[in-house]
Amino acid sequence: FKIVYETYRKTEGKNNWELYLMNADGSNPVNLTNTPDVDEMYPHASGDGTKICFVADESSPLPQGRDEGTGRRKVRSVYYMNINGTGRVKVADNARQPCWGPDGKTIAYLKGEYDRYSTREYATSELLIYDLQTRKHKAHPNKSLHHIYAICWSPDGNWFFAAVHGGMGYSDTILAFETDGTRVFDLGRWRVKGCRPEISLDGTKMTWGETDWNLCVANIDLTSSSPRVTNIREVVTCLRKSKV
């Protein structure tokens, strides 16, 4: 097994975010990106383990007439690449926090809420789905998706899960919403709260960060008309000076 992760460290003398791949026991870390002038973050591996999607914060020329002194601006874009760091392909500019479709042939991502660069992870305005073969982008049928982040796609392809902050009538919670419909369910009814939801490959378990200092796991039933969460338990906790 391998783990792909983001890490902040020096690259060629510059501090920046890079994507690394290591063995599950922590051995043999390899820098996949090695780009001192670009910050790569939020990696997600495809279900078959052959590709990674991620975001990159990089400089881009300003439009004509918008010279702000440097002639450059920062843009957050979505990319994907092979698991070994080769074959990097841009999916979209002003895009955020992608995840893989269960077939490994599509990538869901969030459009940035503003044209101007923002580090706020919830500054999103809609969800789109990108087809790797056709290179076409399709908007999700629910046009009210707003201020969601940390999305994941269920293995059966029927559900998205995401955290929401100050959008769609919610304060802070984790939502489940249909892939091809408009129904939305607040998982707070099952005492699920926090962010960064993920579903296991067999579709029977869910994990999320209840806070920045503890992780939870629960059983999830995706066979009913709406997701049902049971048997919540805390599996990791750490001191406030650290984060998980």
TrEMBL record:
Spell out the InterPro entries in the cross-references: 6-blade_b-propeller_TolB-like, WD40
Q: Which Gene3D superfamilies match?
A: TolB, C-terminal domain
Query: PANTHER family recorded for this chain?
Result: PROTEIN TOLB HOMOLOG
Q: What family is reported?
A: Belongs to the TolB family.
Name assigned to this protein: Dipeptidylpeptidase IV N-terminal domain-containing protein
Lineage, broadest ranks = unclassified sequences, metagenomes, ecological metagenomes
